[in-house]
Fold each of these.
Amino acid sequence: MHELNIEIKKKIFPLKTQNKEGKNLIFKNLNLTIKKGQFVSFFGPSGCGKTTLLNIISGLDKDFYGRVHQWSKKSQNIATQDITTQYSFSNISYMFQTPRLFPWLTAIENIKYPIKKKKNSEKIAFELIKKIGLEKYKNEYPNRLSGGMQRRIGLARAFAPNPNILLLDEPFISVDKKISNSLRKLLIKLWNKNKPTIIFVTHDLEEAIVLAERIFFFSNLPSKILLDYKINLARPRKENSKAFLSLKKLLSSKTRYKKNNPDSNNRI
Amino acid sequence: MDTILKNEFFRRFISILLLIFVWEIISRIIGDKIILPSPINVSESIKYHASNDLFHHVYITLLRVITAFFLAMIIGSAIGIVMGRRKKLDDYFDGWLILALNIPALVTIILCFIWFGLNEVAAVLAVAINKIPTVTVIIREGTKAIDEKLVEVGKIYKKSRFEITKEILIPQLLPYFISAARSGLALIWKIVLVVELLGRSNGVGFKINEFFSMFDTTSILAYTLVFVLIIMSIEWFLVKPCEKKLTEWRL
């Protein structure tokens, strides 16, 4: 089976301010398995460690106990508290909360960045910029483009290396609804081509239902999975259809979050 | 007239003419060549020295400026980047840096001459040592201001340390390099003159000392003007276009 396995024994956030238990425990014994090519969403309140989890999966954060491995052939031994293994995934891509484009590179150069060394990078980047409808702006610098356009370019860059795993951390936050809707459509369109495994972090339930095949609901800290729900709605999903609305109602009633104490409300 | 005044180039031109005009007026009021020669005296003096050894000395000084400049930029940047990236090293050596910044140029120059002798190496080294701390401070601040979030993008796409430096760190440091280069050029040529005055037998500084002993203000201004013009053309025709090209994305 080609799967992405995440087994986290313990993850502590090294902050000086400590909560009641005396430590900033983010995860304890968190286990997830994600099928290859699945579009998964991590849903939960702000500050519940979703971004931390993406950073662990991507390999940016190696300060945890446990392991993350890709396409495993039956895990040989169970991770102990002392083992930290982050297999460097060969083909992972990450779209952050802000587009993080290089301001000194043009739109097309930004898209090309992950695959610069490949021979056909020019062609791939051009095809992508056409797909996102910005070929007219290919030689513009990001600062001269709107927030929505910058996010399109960020999305194209994330798909440029043709990743096996694509992580998205609330990528469409702080753009208006019309634009974020079109960005979501674009994401589905790009995903459909080669179907990488996608992990999409959001705190917008509607967005999770529109996009994902499976939603993991995370609790407040220390974060646990409250619910693992498969979405079977046909695509394209309409936010105002009856089935959609009733599912949204069901899910939000199932996962009512307790008011968390104000200081754990901070983003992690 | 109104449209001409809107032209930036024209306004700059007018400003230079105005300066020469004011200079001429003041020199006429004073009426003493030793205190302030007129622009015409100076331009004639330039013509005279140009047919003599002016360009020989200017060339030698320029060579010293350029060598000291690159030496200071390379060493200063390297130290600055390391100090900016390594907090511990920064803690250790910040005090040294402040000390180095506060040593007067004259002291470094004399010490270099005492230690290494009255030679070319000592001269260039003395100038570079004066400039290194300022370059280090500017580049260290630039390095501290580097956006780690962009570095993370490089890490995600498995770029090597060298690639990250070249493709992500250096572009973010460019504005700081340019500002260090600009202030460096202006400072270095002034120090080079002092070095030449104290321990060299050629170059603009040496000549100015010679004219000083003869109270030849006209020749002093002639040499100064020529050298200032050269430094200004480096700024206009080299530094500025480079800056424009390298930072066009910031507009």
Amino acid sequence: MSSLDAATDAELVRRCREGDAEAWNALVERFSRYVYAICVKGFRLRDEDAEDVFQDVFTRVYTHLDKLRDDAAVRPWIAQLTRRLCLDSIARGSREQPAPEQDFEETGDDFAEIEEAFAVREAVTTLGEACQEILDRFFAQDQSYRTISAELDLPAGTIASRIARCLRKLREELEGRSEPSGESRE
Amino acid sequence: MSRIYDEEWLGQRLRVLRRAPQGWVRAAQELPAARRSLDEIVARAEADLEFRAALIADLENALTQAGFEPGPRALDELRKRLELRGGQA
């Protein structure tokens, strides 16, 4: 865990602008899953196109950080940038290889789900390392109880109850956030 | 807004944000260093005509000789900055 995990988006942006390498690493870490999800879940880009967009997004974030008017608005800015670059990539692809029928249709559902997932992930970061690790392994990495047990050196019979306990804590955390107040939330 | 955060809903949302491939994340984290390297190469190419000629003749070889090891994306960027597009590369 980095000491910057708890930093606000605005603080990270400010430190990145000052040339703090650790802050840049943390910013990429914080938003990498989000950008990736927009590319592959939101726009269903192929891996090679998603990689181009992913790198392009972070290159532009790095080079245009000075132009961001509100440091706290970095997430919507990154989302907008990613969506625009995904659409460019799709347009480029269909120019190079016109498809008989467009198989991509932008719907709000996937994007709403990505936004909700980001809020849930922010809540997860408050739960402590053990919960973050086990929830990520089980849900985001699709690891089995057996694999989690072996890799974390925990009794196999306790994995399900640990996950349930972490989910309970997560629910309490989310329910405690009665209204959007964090500067990184829209 | 009231929402019921049941296990199924939470599980679905936790599955959405999967790790991006590690190599992509690392490349993005190395951007500042890569850009510094590119700036250094471009500055040197502007100040040293012989180095610039070597870059135009064989970009990758000239960079290796000079101790730089840029990846494919950095090479593309460098070609643009040195205006080598459509040239030897």
Amino acid sequence: MIPSAGNSKQQARDLHVEFFSRPSYLAIIRQMVDAFSGRLGFAPAEASRICLAVDEALCNVIRHGYDSSPDGRIGLTINEPSDDHSIEFIIEDRAQQVDLDTIRSRNLEDIRPGGLGVHLIEEIMDSVNYEHRDGGGMRLTMRKRLPGEETN
Amino acid sequence: MNVNVETRDSATIIQPQGDVDLASSPEFRARLQEAQEQAQSRLVIDLSSVQYMDSSGVATLVECLQRSRTDGIQLVLCQLHERVLSVFQIARLDGVFDIVATVDDALTA
């Protein structure tokens, strides 16, 4: 069970799922995110990019947070737009905490495998925020403005 | 994941099928390494049957590219869906790989 930690703002969670840190579940999560994004009016290409960002974030939790253990728990919350006209994705885990200063895009001029996840997330999402959860684990909050709201 | 491999005009053509993500990229990586060992002068990766690829898939291809350069084998990607091409563009790798439209283009690139 991954209850929201005390340092998160208390709000209703429109859609919340919890699952084990197993790569085989990622395709299911992508389908859910794609459907949710499409329902809010995102064009297929943009919904696909949103899926990629969420997928990359979950991959980071699985690989780096839980060291690829299949027994970790991950919570994904999707909140429909409110005052800021943005869809919000919150990913929470109870994995090892990471120094927030080390979470950054790497130099893309250096052509080598790996290390693209953070860059992809930051390129796709309008806002990205990492924080430590009280009691252990991480919380990643990503927001994407609705179509037609991009310049607001 | 299913991966078709064939030889045509002295090129090895590998065609993965399905999503290339964290779950499937280890298998894709293994099959790609096998195909690379078979390749004589050209390795073509036909992505027509790949609807989704994440950074683990891209990393596998970057690794393949590095090996190809070391081995003197030309690596060409072809038939990328828009969704997959988008990942390369965001990662600024679309100018690093040889990316063409069709398998025939890849065989003559």
Amino acid sequence: MWIRFEVNGTKVELDVEPRVSLADCLRDTLRLTGTHLGCEHGVCGACTVIVDGAAVRACLMLAVQAHGEHIVTVEGLSNDDALSPLQASFRKHHALQCGFCTPGMITTAHALLTEEPDADAERVREVLSGNICRCTGYIPIIKAVLEARAHYAGEDAPP
Amino acid sequence: MKFPAFEYARPTSLDAALGLLKVHGGDAVLLAGGQSLMPLLAFRLAAPGLLVDLKDVPGLGAIGIDAEGVRLGAFVRWCEIDRNARLAAAHPLLVEAIGHVAHYQIRNRGTVGGSLAYADPAAEMPGIAVTCDGEIIVMGGAGERRVAAADFFLGALTTCLEPGEIITGLRLPAWPKDRRWAFLEFARRRGDFALAGTALYYDLDSEGRAVDAHIGVIGAADRPMRLAEAERAINGSAVDADSIAAAAEAASLEVDPMEDFHAPVAYRRALVQTLVARALTRAAG
Amino acid sequence: MKPGNLLIGAPMERVEDPRFLRGAARFVADVNLEGQAHAVIARSSIAHGHIRAIETGDALAIPGVRAVITAHDLGPEVPVIPLRLQPLAALEPFRQPMLAHGKVRFVGEPLAVIVADSPQIAEDALERIGVEIEPLPAIVDRAHAEAGETVLFEDHGSNVAIRWTAMRGDAERAFANADYVRRETFRIQRHAALFMEPRGLVAQWDATARKLTLWGAAKVVFANRRILAASMGLTEQQIEMIEVDVGGGFGSRGEFYPEDFLIPFAARLLNRPVKWIEDRREHLMTANHARETECEVEIAATADGRILGLRGRSWTDNGAYIRTNGSVAPRNVAQFMSGPYDIENIALSTIQLTTNKTPAGTYRGPGRFEGDFVRERLIDLMAKDLGIDRVEIRRRNLVRETQMPYPLATITPYESATELDSGDYRELLDRCLEDFGWAEKVKLDGQLVDGRYHGIAIGCFIEGGGAGPSENARITLETDGSISVYVGSASVGQGIETIMAQIAGDALGAPFDRIRVRHGSTGHVADGGGSYHSRSTVMGGSAIVLAADQLRDNIRKVAARALGCEPAEVTLDADTAKGPSDESLALSELSEESIEAEATFSSDKYTYAYGSLAAHVAVDAKTGHVEVIEVVSIKDVGRIINPATLHGQAVGAIVQGLGGSLLEHLVYDGDGQLLTGTLADYMVPSAECFPNIRSTVVELKPSPNNPLGAKGGGEGEIIPVGGVIANAVAAALADSGAEPFELPLSPPRIWALITEAQSHR
């Protein structure tokens, strides 16, 4: 099936089999391998991408469902020069070790803070409870996301 | 765990969707949020020939609030229920219960209709539908029919939906402002399916006694159910420590928990008793 | 030369991080080769039986399917996975064939390899494979395993693979004369490492050059290459194993699995690159399981609480085969059960059983988590029985600094003796008590507050690390003045590129950003030990220190020639080499060729990091839910390279320990079917479960066993968690009399303990 969608600001047009997941389409066809597959049954969150502003599990979505949508992957949250404030906060707080869950954490946190820049620790934990990490024990991740809030609320936002 | 091969259609009208179901029969399945369907396909527990995506079918995504109550279109997603400011006042028990569904990413996709059709015995939406005298609106080849939630769920992952039918919405009766209610579930981790849960409400007569109690449980049988004995123990009484204890005990005896490796039957019964007691205590304030 | 402390000890941000944060890392699933085919593994869905037939015709008929490989295709003798650690002849009968033939012995055992043009087609073909297995009774518990009516290995004749014995002193006499003896049976459940990146490999065979290249290597790359070469009839030089980014290991990834042979074999057979990535359901039933142990242990003590001895038997459920390191945990249960305590008389044995379940291997703190659960529970029980404060009783029994090196029990067979190297165990116990606020919190102990019972507990632990025999490093001063460090240590996510650069930087006196670390792959060093048993910093780091010394000598030699002086007269700083009369040369202009040095660090002495961990729990007696209110830990590693990354590992280890204590459980039914086959059923901690953990790492007592003075520190904090949580729950429920002896402490189990305890009153 021919589908057209936008990913990280670039329009793409592809012929995909209906059964190909959005995750596999991004990874294999578009070679955007930052989105990871940790379980392929909708539990671990490593495959999280942002579809029209909403964080979704790309392993539970078909590529054909992305027709007409705006998709942002972890690659779209970076630029070549510097790490984004959210990424820099993760690095500062050592919120990653093996790095496999990290893209999903970044996209989920970005989606959350874009909508709710004043999310408190409880809300951040609640939202990230859908992303499994086996290395960090989560505490530095929560700290990193909380510190990054300031950048989503504007310069004069309270910490 | 790649999906098996299937065709995909995205009809732009309900009639077209019904038409596809009629032609393909049991070989077609409906796709709404996909949060329950896709894992099934990933595990190859189902191998439909055709997925019918309801995304472009108009009229399924509305949340309606009026004097008659609340109407949720089948394609209403959990996140939309979260964000609807009027709904929290119009049906607080619904909103509270839905707050426990799964996780952030799933809530951005999962739908009312999908959950009702999937009929997981521990799911919140079927639980609310049954507890709150919900009515499920179904469209089929012969037109629209309405099914009382109490009659809709037949067993674990089984509903009375006929082949070729599509859930279009759920109606919940109007919610009086002074109603006492509570929702309480127990899960191993936030977002997991509940080991058991209860949704309940009652009104108070002029004497401060409970009337019209509705005590529903999820995860304690092969489908959500209302507990008539527990309701009987509360109706006509003041909701106090004694009546709460009686209702909770009745509840534990009335449920028919399935045994699985997560929890033995005796535990689930005790859990139901605890949850009903705590929920009633909370409702009573 | 002992490296200085400019970089070492600094909480530097990791050089690895940017690519992970941008989604620009390269995990094996991200490796794609032109023309690659995809493999899936057909696996047994029956736990035990005779293979009558494997029908491949229907699968081969699907367009796009390129091959279906069964045991027959592997040659006259099906290769087996060798024993990497403890290669005892007694364990050889239990080695796993690369593909099942004759019999299947666990659900998930590989039966065939399907290679197709896409993973989708390969999975479609999986459904068309016809397997005929004549089932045999499945052995899934200790009783049936020991009864031996059905055995997994008919030639061997029993399901007891081997018995390990840890002995010290005279336990017989100690128990006979003890004032106090208490004996209990403990059970630790089957659970696993569950790293987030599924296993995978990409293999490419060059038929002209007769060379194999493999991406996705991990953990013990050189050892795996040796194994692979032997099983494929190649020399090691014909195989290059490339370690890309690795998504966690925890002791489980990187051991040699059947796929590590099957995928390269398929690539060579088809003369086409083959890619294989496991899925999560497959992972749960094929990556090493761990921890399932039953222990009948007794403790002997004087009336004033001095522990005299530990005696007893443990049984580990090792699953269907003994793979590369399957005997490590059973050995450790016995040898390290005494932990940091001065226990002179020990007679502990571990019986390793074969059952029709997934094979077991090492998982963070293997055998130690289990042993500590037993010992710490016995100590708290003893304290209660003797009426002695449980903190005080620990203080009385901890090994003293003056007793070190302190010999632990000797383990046989594969006789191995080890000693605790250095440490002030009491000091850390005291610091932990203070940091935790024990004096205040103890007031809550056993109290019912807001409907929940509160309990606290503390435990002491040691962490063995720095396993030898050796590690290699090579350092090159490039012609542009930059420094390349090659080390045999493998990355499993622990920040090797950063840590090793810190060590190299200080050893060379060079700035951090001039150093680039390459690790793991066989192209980097002649041989490598790898990353396991918390050895990378100790072994790899020490090798770097030695190589750095050598490199400085080599640089001085080159500089001396150019400056016309003796090497001993040359002084080096970060940028220059100076002669005796202050004439200097820039290092980046020293030579037209790079200058290199290679070194090996060898040691046969383990290091022992140590510490204490305390926990506060609140138990809902009605639901059985245990909330972990707070965990506080402290550990001494002798020398900290990067406190931030080390702290990160500590917190991660504690959370894994909490998962193992409360949530995680690989459950089998009576037919040997794994019931927990998804991440919805196998529950690991999520971000909401354990939000209050504070962990401190200190450098108090260096290890005398290596030039860094470091002790391996990647595992430790997981070790005490089971015992401490169980003790805290027991303390909370003291009034009810409920005593937990079995993990996990799930709500139904807690509820049942309370209900049963109350019914006995």
